[in-house]
Design a protein that fits this description.
Largest sheet of chain A: 5 strands, mixed
Number of strands of chain B: 3
Oligomer: heterodimer
Strand content of chain A: 15-25%
Largest interface: A-B, 85 and 76 residues
Radius of gyration of chain A: 17 Å
Distance between the termini of chain B: 38 Å
Strand order of the largest sheet of chain B: 1-2-3
Strand content of chain B: 5-15%
Number of strands of chain A: 7
Structural class of chain A: alpha/beta
Largest sheet of chain B: 3 strands, parallel
Structural class of chain B: mainly alpha
Helix content of chain B: 40-55%
Shape of chain B: globular
Number of domains of chain B: 1
Number of domains of chain A: 1
Order of helices and strands of chain B: HEHEHEHH
Helix content of chain A: 25-40%
Radius of gyration of chain B: 18 Å
Order of helices and strands of chain A: HEEHEEHHEEHE
């Protein structure tokens, strides 16, 4: 079964995505072999649904995006894996927030990953996971020079063996 | 997101992108891709459906660890359990995003300008 990538997209938006090819300078293959066994590996999650911790973190900046439609907040948050689901909030102007608020696992499956650790399918999960606000296509430069190096340093510090990224 | 995956991968850390637009992730040259035919915002499935979340995450980990080469794409065969018309409406924000508002007004201007 081959997924229809445009099934839920308004028809008029399809040309914005289809047939656009790679970004300039991003054409070549990149490959890091996964050399360990899963059961000995540390895994981190990265969501771009704009999730943040209400009680301790600032929201992503959606007000500036309202003023500058082509801008997206390039900052990031780390989300503790033991956070209360009710303490998570969503800042993302491109999707409905209702389903993620009702069950954050749909975008950031913290509990599901912990379950796979307890069953020893994977060795461990990081104690925090990463959250960005995924609207990045039109302002890649800040991401390349600032956000991505910070995220990579964060992953290296925690000796992460693999990352599961899920866009909103 | 595919580009971010590429940068992380280039730094030596393997990645997998779980996405409702796997064709786009392929065009953008993500190293490993799991495709899901789910509405936007719901990469791991239906709210409250822990079995579905697990199916998506487990497949993602298998592809992360087991893909043999760059560009591997595996699609998950789960049909979204909500009628298309309802699901199509449900994922969209209550108000169009700023960029969509801008694009719609550009389209409207182009249509009203005689060529």
């Amino acid at each position: 079964m081959i997924v229809d990538s445009y099934r839920f997209l308004p028809r008029s938006f399809r040309p914005l995505y289809e047939g656009r090819g790679p970004f300039p300078g991003e054409e070549a293959p990149v490959w890091a072999p996964f050399e360990k066994r899963l059961a000995a590996s540390r895994i981190a999650l990265l969501t771009s649904a704009g999730i943040y911790v209400k009680s301790s973190q600032a929201s992503f900046d959606v007000e500036r995006e309202q003023r500058e439609p082509e801008w997206g907040d390039p900052s990031w948050r780390s989300i503790p894996s033991n956070v209360e689901a009710a303490d998570l909030e969503v800042a993302h102007l491109h999707i409905s927030h209702d389903d993620i608020r009702s069950d954050p696992e749909v975008a950031l499956p913290l509990r599901t990953l912990d379950e796979l650790v307890s069953e020893r399918l994977i060795g461990s999960a990081t104690a925090e996971h990463l959250s960005v606000m995924g609207y990045q296509d039109r302002s890649l430069e800040g991401w390349r020079t600032d956000t991505a190096p910070q995220l990579i340093a964060w992953l290296r510090e925690r000796q992460v063996d693999g990352v599961v990224l899920a866009p909103a | 997101m595919p580009v971010l995956a590429r940068w992380i991968e280039a730094a030596g850390i393997p990645t997998v992108v779980v996405t409702m637009m796997p064709a786009v992730a392929q065009e953008r040259k993500a190293p490993r891709i799991v495709g899901v035919e789910f509405p936007f915002g719901l990469a791991f499935g239906m709210p409250g459906d822990a079995v579905m979340h697990r199916q998506v995450l487990e497949l993602s980990l298998r592809v992360l660890a087991g893909a043999g080469s760059f560009g591997t794409r595996i699609d998950l065969d789960i049909e979204w359990p909500v009628p298309l018309r309802d699901a199509y409406k449900a994922w969209q924000p209550k108000e169009p995003s700023p960029i969509v508002r801008k694009l719609l007004s550009t389209l409207a201007r182009e249509r009203s300008t005689p060529s």
